[in-house]
Design goal:
Layout: E1 2-5, E2 12-16, H1 22-39, E3 45-47, E4 55-59, E5 79-84, E6 87-92, H2 95-110, E7 113-116, E8 119-121, E9 128-130, E10 134-136, E11 142-146, H3 153-158, E12 178-179, H4 185-188, H5 191-194, E13 204-205, E14 208-209, H6 221-237, E15 243-245, H7 263-272, H8 276-293, E16 298-303, E17 320-325, H9 335-341, H10 346-360, E18 364-369, H11 383-395, E19 398-404, H12 416-428, H13 434-446, H14 448-464, H15 483-499, H16 505-522, H17 530-543, H18 555-564
Parallel strand pairs: 2-3, 2-4, 4-6, 11-19, 12-15, 15-16, 16-17, 17-18, 18-19
Antiparallel strand pairs: 1-9, 5-6, 5-10, 7-8, 13-14
Helix pairs in contact: 1-2, 6-8, 9-10, 11-12, 13-14, 14-15, 15-16, 16-17
The chain binds zinc ion.
């Protein structure tokens, strides 16, 4: 036990190594900043070049502090918080781990929380008494919450996301940096460049080589050589990355044939009873070849749509990341619940594939989803299924998780900030109680007086979806949406709005856009002033800086669709704003 602060006074100094990295120095200043805010007691920071003036909180390896042996077999993000004599040691396997350790200390001792980039809280206390040693490591080596607000360094770092897309620099200890984050076959061998001279590089389907919307012939030796050269070129130009994507392109893999069916590709896929076989064979060979020159390189590929089913006997190379996408699932139940209810349902079949992948790969990552992409604002009550699935992934050997929400430039989307916070929290900690976490968020984000009504609003929809399916592309004619549900939801939001303090009302206004969208898209076409109401809604959307209502779609187009059709269904001449996910 260490009495670090007593009655707002302290004998402690915070100390860095004189050669500490930018990130370790930032960790020290974050500790000082939040302890000061919480206790009104400023702890001086100095380097270990100074003599020891008193008791110390040692950040990283300063004062000759050696690495604790218990960190040896843990990841480079593992950390320890312990006492040695009168000193407190906050150390980790990397500068980023040390910064995470500081945030963990603040979470435990002043109840520090970063709920969103514009909402963080801590308790005001008079005493800090260190009691329990902590050694911590993450179950997921890659943690990414793909929501606009979660890309800020403030949110990502404090919620311990090592996210590829987040704005995490040297100060935050860097991140899990990828090159070419997703689909990449056409970047490796472009049909525009090669098809006319080498049609044999591309998918052979129904008697001919395909040029448009194609994949690669993965048994072709030249394609293999081009892929190896391309990955090496990427690596040479991006030495700070260690994950490179060699992954199928995204066309219409659910509906039309994509994989090459030339004799050689087909023979392997038939033998392995899965079209993922050619892909796994190919990327494993690429990984082994590239690793001869760059041993730290990992090759990422997808198990998605036509490649979701794992091969029967082939095993991915140890340096291949297989990212399995669960886009076919229903989000009203967890994957396990779906399987137990009906093993032959879409979710049940996904469960089967998942379990097989989890046995054959040591780097299984998951691409999961947490918003309705066709209608970003439409209530998409998946908090229960999302958190159960995160636990399920942890139990079953998953090493990385991306939770994709609305990541458009303006953000927004149903409960996007809450979902980003909950996803990040469940990714790093076990045994959390969803309802407690949501209530804590509601109190901080919407004000204590509104918290109960907002909590009830959130769980009203979570309860309403029970017994139904919930897909990523549902419209507001989903059977869970009824006039009665809308009325109950509106009453709760009104209650919250009246009861809370004025400073929280803008946030409640954003929450009410979800209900307004539901209401307006369900209105009959002949309701008086329907268009005017949609115009008012459009102004409110803009006041909250939301840029998209439908995924990758111009805002004006979406408003026009709402006016033209009930449930926003008439989407003629839709154009995709395909911006970069890197
Ligand atoms: Zn082929």
């Amino acid at each position: 036990m260490l009495e670090i602060i007593k009655n707002q006074r302290s004998e402690y100094y915070i100390v860095n190594n004189k050669d500490a990295s930018v990130c370790e120095r930032f960790a020290a200043s974050e500790l000082e900043k939040y302890l000061y805010l919480s206790t009104n007691c400023p702890l001086p920071i100095y380097s270990d070049k100074c003599d020891k003036y008193g008791k110390e909180i040692i950040i990283g390896r300063a004062r000759g502090n050696k690495k604790d042996e218990r960190l040896n077999n843990l990841s480079d993000e593992a950390f320890i918080i312990k006492e040695v004599g009168d000193d407190l040691i906050i150390d980790g396997n990397s500068p980023r781990a040390i910064l995470y350790a500081v945030y963990r200390f603040l979470e435990d001792y002043i109840h520090f929380r970063c709920f969103a980039s514009d909402c963080e809280t801590y308790k005001e206390v008079d005493d800090i008494v260190f009691k329990n040693e902590i050694i911590f490591d993450f179950k997921f080596e890659y943690r990414e919450v793909y929501f606009t607000d979660a890309f800020t360094s403030c949110f990502a770092s404090k919620n311990m996301l090592n996210s590829n897309l987040a704005d995490l620099g040297e100060r935050e200890g860097g991140k899990n940096k990828w090159f070419n984050f997703h689909h990449s076959f056409s970047d490796i061998v472009s049909p525009k460049e090669y098809f006319d001279t080498h049609p044999e590089y591309f998918s052979y389907i129904d008697g001919h080589r395909v040029k448009e919307h194609t994949e690669l012939c993965l048994s072709n030796e030249d394609v293999f050589k081009l892929a190896v050269e391309k990955v090496k070129e990427w690596k040479r130009n991006h030495m700070d990355c260690h994950i490179f994507s060699v992954a199928q392109d995204e066309w219409m893999g659910h509906f039309i044939k994509m994989a090459c069916e030339c004799d050689k590709c087909k023979a392997l896929d038939d033998k392995e009873e899965a079209q993922s076989a050619s892909i796994i064979n190919f990327v494993s060979k690429v990984a082994r070849e590239v690793n001869k020159e760059y041993p730290d390189v990992l090759i990422h590929t997808f198990a998605y749509q036509y490649s979701r089913k794992p091969p029967k006997t082939l095993i991915p190379d140890k340096n291949v990341i297989v990212r399995l996408c669960n886009i076919e699932c229903s989000w009203s139940r967890s994957i396990e619940e779906e399987y137990r209810m009906n093993p032959k349902s879409r979710g049940g079949l996904f469960y089967d594939d998942f379990m097989k992948w989890s046995k054959i790969t040591n780097r299984l990552y998951i691409w999961d989803y947490a918003v309705n992409f066709r209608n970003y604002l439409l209530p998409f009550p998946n908090l229960r299924s999302m958190t159960k699935n995160i636990e399920f992934y942890k139990k079953n050997n998953v090493k990385g998780l991306l939770m994709q929400g609305n990541f458009s430039h303006g953000g927004g989307g149903y409960l996007d900030k809450l979902k980003a916070y909950i996803a990040a929290r469940f990714m790093r900690y076990d045994n959390l109680v969803l309802e407690d976490e949501v209530m804590e968020f509601c109190k901080a984000y919407y004000g204590k007086k509104a918290a109960k009504a907002v909590f009830d609003f959130i769980f009203l929809f979570e309860d309403a979806v029970k017994g139904y399916d919930l897909w990523l592309y549902d419209d507001s004619d989903h059977p869970m949406f009824t006039d009665k549900l809308e009325e109950q939801a509106a009453n709760l939001l009104n209650k919250a709005y009246i009861e809370t303090e004025a400073k929280y009302r803008f946030r409640l206004g954003e929450l009410s856009l979800n209900l307004a969208y539901l209401n307006l898209t369900r209105l009959d076409m002949d309701v008086k002033d329907r268009n005017e109401m949609i115009d008012d809604f459009s102004e409110a959307v803009k006041a909250h800086h939301i840029t998209e209502l439908f995924e990758r779609t111009k805002l004006e187009y979406s408003i026009d669709v709402m006016k033209k059709s009930q449930y926003a269904k008439k989407r003629d001449n839709w154009q995709s704003l395909y911006y970069i996910m890197q």
